[in-house]
Design brief:
alpha+beta; 3-stranded antiparallel sheet; single chain; about 120 residues
């Protein structure tokens, strides 16, 4: 079956207005519209860097118990989480998978490293 949604865990997490921490989420693959339509947004036209904010708000299907992931939610992410999500977006949309090939530095064993558990064991 073709996978279109990928789970992730933010390194730090989003803290909402009530002080609740949200780290677990789901990102779906981007469509052409996800990448094209934000270019018409006035916020992107006045600041190209804002494209990342709108794009991520469109493709993050779930973030903890947050009702809806809006550009305001993405603006509230810590820089480390934003960087993680940008890399995660690029990885799943380039290759259609959330893993990278890795090699043990001690024994040279090759294995697939899951991207959805940063810093975890």
């Amino acid at each position: 079956m073709f996978q279109t949604e990928y789970e992730f865990t933010l390194p730090l997490g989003y803290v909402d207005a009530e002080g609740d921490l949200h780290r677990e989420g789901v990102m779906r693959l981007a469509t052409a519209a996800d990448e094209i339509l934000p270019l018409k947004d006035p916020r992107v036209q006045s600041n190209e860097a804002y494209l990342t904010v709108i794009l991520l708000s469109r493709v993050i299907a779930r973030l903890g118990a947050v009702a809806q992931v809006t550009p305001k939610v993405v603006e509230g992410l810590y820089a480390a989480d934003l960087a993680y999500l940008q890399e995660f977006y690029n990885r799943i949309n380039r290759s259609g998978k959330a893993t990278i090939e890795a090699e043990c530095p001690r024994c040279a064993h090759e294995f697939a490293l899951e991207m959805n558990s940063p810093g975890g064991s």
